[in-house]
Amino acid sequence: xxxxTAVSLSKVSRVFGPVTALDGIDLDVRPGEFFAMLxxxxxxxxxxxxxxxxxxxxSSGRVAIFGEDVTGVPPYRRAVNTxxxxxxLFPHFxxxxxxxxxxxxxxxxxxxxxxxxxxxxxxxxxxxxxxRRPAQLSGGQRQRVALAxxxxxxxxxxxxxxxxxxxxxxxxxxxxxxLKSLQRALGLTFVFVTHDQGEAxxxxxxxxxxxxxRIEQVGSPEDVYRRxxxxxxxxxxxxxxxxxPGLVARLAGERRWASLRPEDVRLVACEGADPALxxxxxxxxxxxxxxxxxxxxxxxxVHVVRPAGELLPTEGPVAIAFEREALxxxxxxx
Amino acid sequence: MTRPPxxxxxxxxxxxxxxxxxxxxxxxxxPVLWLVVVYLGSLAALLVQSFYALDDFSGLVVEEFTLxxxxxxxxxxxxxxxxxxxxxxxxxxxxxxxxxxxxxxxAARYARGWRKAAFYLAVMLPLxxxxxxxxxxxxxxxxxxxxxxxxxxxxxxxxxxxxxxAIPGIGGNSLSVSYIGTFLVFLYVWLPYMILPMQAALxxxxxxxxxxxxxxxxxxxxxxxxxxxxxxxxxxxxxxIFTFSLTLGDYIIPQIVGSSxxxxxxxxxxxxxxxxxxxLAAAFTMxxxxxxxxxxxxxxxxxxxxxx
Amino acid sequence: MRSERxxxxxxxxxxxxxxxxxxxxxxxxxxxxxxEERSFAWPPPGLTLRWFAVAWERPDVxxxxxxxxxVAAVSTLLALVLGTLVAAAVSRTRFFGRETISLLVILxxxxxxxxxxxxxxxxxxxxxxxxxxxxxVLGHATFxxxxxxxxxxxxxxxxSGSLVExxxxxxxxxxxxxxxxxxxxxxxxxxAGGMLAFALSFDExxxxxxxxxxxxxxxxxxxxxxxRPRQRxxxxxVAMVVVLVTFLPILAAFFLTRDGxxxxxxxx
Lengths: 334, 308, 268
What we know:
The structure holds 3 protein chains of 3 kinds. Helix content of chain A is 28%, strand content 32%. Chain A has 9 helices and 18 strands. Chain A has helices at 45-53, 95-105, 110-123, 139-151, 169-186, 197-203, 221-226, 231-236, 245-252, and strands at residues 7-16, 19-29, 34-38, 60-65, 68-69, 80-83, 157-161, 189-194, 206-211, 214-219, 241-243, 256-260, 266-268, 278-286, 290-297, 300-307, 318-321, 328-332. Chain C is an all-alpha fold. In chain C, helix 4 crosses helix 6 (133-158), helix 6 (133-158) packs across helix 8 and helix 8 runs antiparallel to helix 11 (232-258). Chains B and C meet through helix 1, helix 2, helix 4, helix 5 and helix 6 of B and helix 1, helix 3, helix 4, helix 5 and helix 6 of C. Chain A: This is ABC transporter ATP-binding protein. Chain A: Keywords: ATP-binding, Nucleotide-binding. Chain C: This is ABC transporter permease.
């Protein structure tokens, strides 16, 4: 009977002494999904991952994997494997023995496990590296070994802790695509932790945004980017402009906080514009494909991103304009 | 094969995983039992003995609580022994700090690659080579017919050696029966214990601090006084704990090289051995323990451990 | 830029210090070959290999040597087990009183040897335990624990915590993780600790004088010769052999731990 959730956390809290790392969270990850846990450091996302792996136990609440309650089950009895942030390759094993380690523990014969290790290495495009030592590999290669080792025993869920954090920009981009296609090829559930919203947006099917031990929003990348649930999500995911309830009431008729993406804002002439939307440019940065401007609208700071090549005013007062649909209404004024 | 099979012994592994406290207790049971029973037990036995006394007539130990044995420590002869030992320990500690500094500093700051390894080995080999062989080597060196007398004669400084040996108190018939001799052997034997912590402390001084100090206009001497010395001090304190404690408790060096006057260690040895006065020997060992306790307490008060 | 050249006065002082440290040991090697029998005369009137043969024929030297080797081997083995257990407990689990445990381990070497020696002797006396091979071992193992402990703890600390988690994550329980991951990674540190413990025990004299009774270990034999010399040239030869025997484990331990820095999880 296929379970409807791959990973399910219900009312899970984790307290370390005086610190509450997780505060009663509920979370369901669907089978076959590429799921991201996004949040700043200390938001509880890594603790959440460690609870699923079994390195930590919840102070209260339940953790289930494919419908089976694993609360209190040690990590070595969970059908879940982890790719560690520092890769955690065993320095005294060569690459092949590292990858074959889970199979050795399962008493698979030497010939069989070496074949399986070679196949897993091929999946991460490291065929022929089996005889090397971890110390002889580059950072990117080490990560591939860690990945091969985590999938060789066919876990039901693969956990990745900041998988791209230690790689340089170029490598990170190519690894993003590779992780995506690996996940599709294996049909596995991937759960990965990151503090980089760009990474979460580009790779994940769904994202949970963490803050201070709670989940602020769960949704598709478009949901959290276009329709943030609250000011924290709007600010953390893509740094949206946040408009105060007073202004929003005048523009949209409702006293609520609203978010407005910088790329949805245009610059227009001041004549006939709403006086609340008139201000001046305080900073300008050239980003290559676009230009980013900082505006001061009578005390309210607003960012605007315009495609490169657009003619932009250099001085004097300027007004902003945007479509009504671009304005996303969030929580009411407290 | 998503999950490893249960294996024999697996349930014990599970139990230990669930209760890390139990694991720690199991790991510690044997060694702690050993250390508490064998070692602390023995120290306790020693402490108890120090409160017994020797019956002067029968020569047997009377197993009744008394402070009489401790009172004996305060006789003039015994106080002289304690004073002599403490002075020697202080002198050895000071001298080893002075001799150790250039070695530790060069090893920490300037030596790189094979030179660094050579420095390390040059300190480690004397540290770990046989204590008695080291003492023996100095018996050879300090002997009246030995290499030191020969060297003084070669460079025509024999009168200087004779003048030094003529100094009352620390001099003597030859170097090997003088306090100077005892001092030199102590210094030699404990010097590595000063170099190693000193070097460790100096290695923790970031180079850019020295650059910063020079950049701010300090002359090398000032950098040394205001930057290097305060930062090296924790290492000196750590080293001095060794040199001081080891000198206080030693009874072999003064027996082999030096005058016939006793040090604490020798007093302990003769009291428990030939004199058969175990209570007085036990009381005597409490002296270095008490002095080291005070010393450590003082060092802690001075904040020497915070920096370690 | 700060100059990397050592200032001359500093270099001279350090050089003199090193000469002071190593010179006496070198002297031992020269005296082993001297023809002089009665005194410590320098320079040696002549050189000979004769005393090696004489020392070789001395049964008391051999008996003392074998006893020392036996004591050192057994004490090292005990210290290896006990020291590793404490190091594992201190670095792998969190519990109340860790500081106290470390202090307890260090105490036997921190207190002057004479304290440990006389304490053990008075305990043996009170419990009426007769002196034997095992009373020597009891003392030696007690102060050797700290050497093994120090080496093991340092390596445990370098062994990245995520290696153990990775092993468990991949399906190994605590015992399997110990066997396949922890032991191979701390092995060389244990070997080094064991060698140092061996050297420490082989050389120990202060505690041993209190726990040995009639038995004579090699250092006790040396001490006897120092106080009441019988045949000085034989002592010279034995001294040189002892220096060589202790140097080898020290050198081995040095080369074993020197390359330990690369271990575990420093992927970045």
